[in-house]
Design a protein that fits this description.
This protein is an alpha+beta fold and 649 residues long. The chain has helices spanning 2-18, 24-37, 40-59, 77-94, 102-105, 114-117, 131-134, 140-158, 169-192, 195-222, 251-256, 259-262, 307-325, 340-352, 369-375, 380-388, 415-435, 441-445, 465-475, 521-536, 540-555, 608-617, and strands at 248-250, 277-279, 287-292, 300-304, 355-359, 393-396, 400-403, 452-454, 457-461, 491-494, 497-500, 503-504, 582-583, 590-600, 638-646. Helix content is 45%, strand content 11%. Strand 6 and strand 7 form a beta hairpin.
Amino acid sequence: MGNMKQLLQVLLNELGSRCATSTTSDQNYIAGRMETEGDEFLTISLPAFAKDLERCLDQGFVSEDAFRGFKKRSLSHDEKLTRDVMRESFVAKMGHESGPNWQEHGGPSPLFLGGFLAQIFHPLYGYLRNYENTGCWIDQEYLDRQTDAIQAIRQISLMFAKIDKPCSDARVRRALSDYVATDQVVAEFEREWSPADYGDFSRISNLLFGDVFSRIDRDVYAGDVVPKHGPGATADKLKGNQKFDQLEWPERLDAVFPAGEYLLPNWRYYKYLDRVTYLEPGAERPVRVITVPKTASKPRIIAIEPTAMQYMQQALLEKIVEAIEGDELLSAFVGFTDQIPNQDMAREGSLNGELATLDLSEASDRVSVRHVEELFAHSRNLLEAMMAVRSTKADVDGHGIISLAKYASMGSATCFPVEAMVFLTSIFMGIERHLGVRMTRKIIRSYVGKVRVYGDDIIVPVDVVEDVVLSLEARNGFKVNRNKSFWTGKFRESCGKEFYAGADVSIVRVRRELPANISDAEKVVSAVSMRNQFYWSGLWQTAFWLDDKVISKVLGPKNYPVVEPSSSVLGRHSCLDVETQRMSPTLHKPLVRGYVVRAVIPVNKLDDTGALLKWFLKRGSDPFDDANHLERSGRPVAVSIKLQWASPH
C-alpha cells in the first residue's frame, strides 16, 4: 500500500493548510509506525485513534486511558500548579463546588496530530474548548475551526478502516467463535427472560404494531402473499434463473405455504411437484455462515439462506415494509428504505443536545426466537409464517452444524424488519419505565420526531436514554456499543453520517487499493468514485493528485473527461461545465470518449415452467428491464470497463 501512504501525505498537507497547522511531524510519525506495523497502522491503529477522539468529544475531555499507543506530553510541576489554579478560578467563576470531569480526570492530548487536537482540546489539560469547560463563549468562527479539525482527524484516521481486504485467518476464526458464543448467550437469555419483562414486551409491541399485524395476518391467512427471489447467493448454490426451478421444499414451510401454491405458475403444472423433495425438519438444509470484509480488525458474518426459505422470506418482507411504511404513525418511528430521517435527527441532536444516537453490537444475532414469538403473539397466522421461513440450523466453519437460538442472522430477508420492530418495542419499554405510567397510544404518538429506528441505528431523547439502555440490555438481552453511542456532547452518528454541533463531519473512505493498470477494473471504478467524493468534500488538492498520479496514468488523460455525476462514463466531476468532444451523428447530443463499466452477467437459461413462474411473479405491469433475462441472470461474475463514446450527462 505504498501509494496509499503517498495519498495520506497529500491529504495531510491539504488538511493541515485548511486547519492552519503543520503536519510534518505527523507524516514522519506515520512513516515510522508503518515501518514497524505495516498496513495495520492504517487499518487498525488509526481507526482506534478516531474512536477515542469521538469518545472524548462525547465526555468533554481527554481521559487518561484514551489514545493508548500514542505518546502524550507529561505535565511538569509548574504545569500541574497552573492546572490547579485554573480549576480554582473556574469554580469561583461558575459558582459551584465541583467543576466538570476534566478537572479530575482530564489529561494531555497526544502529540500525534497535535496541531489539530489543540484546536479541539487544551493540549496540556485535556478539556474540550467550549463554554462549559472554560467559562468563555466560543464564537461561530472558532466553532467552525474546531469542526474542521474534528473532521480532519476523522478523515486521516478513519479513511482506511473499511478497505476491502480480507482479515487474517486468526481474526476470522475468532469472529466465527464469537458468532457461536453469542448464540449461546441468546439461548441463556431466553431461559432467564422474566415473565414480567416479556409480558411488557408483548403488550407494548401490540400497542405499536397490532393494527398493522392484523392486516398482514389476514393476507397470510388468505394466501395473499407473493414470493420473490433475491439477487444473492443461496445455501443450495442456485443462482439467477436456476432459483425458479428449485426442487427442495421444507415440510415446515409447506404447512404454511404449500408448494403447489408457490412453486407452480398454476395448478395445470401439478406434475412438477413429483420432482420436489420435501424435507423433514431433521433433514432441512442449514444456513451457510460465511465472512465478508468489514474492517481489518473484524469481518462481517453473513448467513446464506436456502433458496426456499429466502423465497418466502422476501414475500413477508415486502408485506411488512409496505404495511409499516404506509402507516402514518409507525412510519415516523421505523424506516426500512430511507436513512435520511435518521441522519436529519442525528444532526438535530448534535445541534441542540436533545436527541441521543445509539448503536448496538451483534444486533441481529441477539434477537431471540422468544422475542419474535412475543412480537407476533397476537397475530397467530403471521407468527406461524414468520417461524416457518426461519432456518433453525447453521453450518459454521470449524464448529460444524449448530442449532440456532437467534431468530435469524444477517442474510435472512426478515432479519432487518424484525430487529427494527423488536428494538422499537424495547425502546418504549424503557420510556414507560422512565415515565412511571402505563404506555398508551397517546404517549407513543407524543414521541413522533423524537424516536426513530433504522436497523440497529437508534435515536431517542437524551432524557430517557438511561432507561432505554437499561431496557435494551438488562431487560431484552441486547448490547449497546458505548463507543458508537453518543448523548452527552455535540457529536452524533447515525446511518453513515456523523455530525458535530450541527456540522457534517462525515468522511471519504478508501474502499479498495489504488489501481496499477487498466485490468484492475474494480479498483479503477473505486478510485474514480473516491476522487469525486474528495472533490465534492472540498479536498481539491487530494482529488487532483489522484487525477494526475493515479487515474490519468491508468486510463490515459484523453480518456478521462469531465462529466456530470449522472453520466455512465468514469470521469471527473467538476463545478464547471462538462466536456463535449463531439456531437452524436444520429441523436444530436454531446459525446465524450471514456471508459464505461460493463458487468458480465452469467449465462443462465430458463424456459418452460420456470419461465412462466418468473413472469407471474414479476412486480408491476411494465416489461422486464432486460430483454435477455431468460438467457442471462444472476449477479455479475466479473466487472470490466470498456472505452467508448457516451454522454457526459
